[in-house]
């Protein structure tokens, strides 16, 4: 398919952000213990670093947000959806929307 691989990450400032985000996805509780206090990382649900089509894929997330969520009855931004994972799935707390970590994710 057309799903990008780690080798496709550019060697520039955007690529550095993508690599930091990938590390956060893989090592969420170690990297962000104040926000994800348990033992679950993003990649426990978003398999293959979010590239598995049938396991909560992250590919193309920016194109799908903002979007309406029936569960909340509101239109939400991508950062809000990420924070639903932090507060619900990871049983943690919201990551600051304007933080470098949120931008990297």
Q: Look at the helices and sheets and give the structural class.
A: mainly alpha
Distance between the termini: 23 Å
Helical amount: 40-55%
Overall outline:
globular
Tell me the strand order in the biggest sheet.
Answer: 1-2
Oligomer: single chain
Weakly predicted, low-confidence segments: none
- Strand residue percentage: 5-15%
Order of H and E elements: HHHHEEHH
What can you tell me about this protein's structure?
The structure is a single chain. The protein is mainly alpha-helical and 105 residues long. The protein has 6 helices and 2 strands; from the N terminus they run H-H-H-H-E-E-H-H. A two-stranded antiparallel ribbon has the order 1-2. The longest helix has 14 residues, at 13-26.
Question: What's the short version?
Answer:
This protein is mainly α and 105 residues long.
Mind sketching the topology for me?
Blueprint: H1 13-26, H2 28-31, H3 47-50, H4 61-64, E1 67-69, E2 74-76, H5 78-89, H6 100-104
Antiparallel strand pairs: 1-2
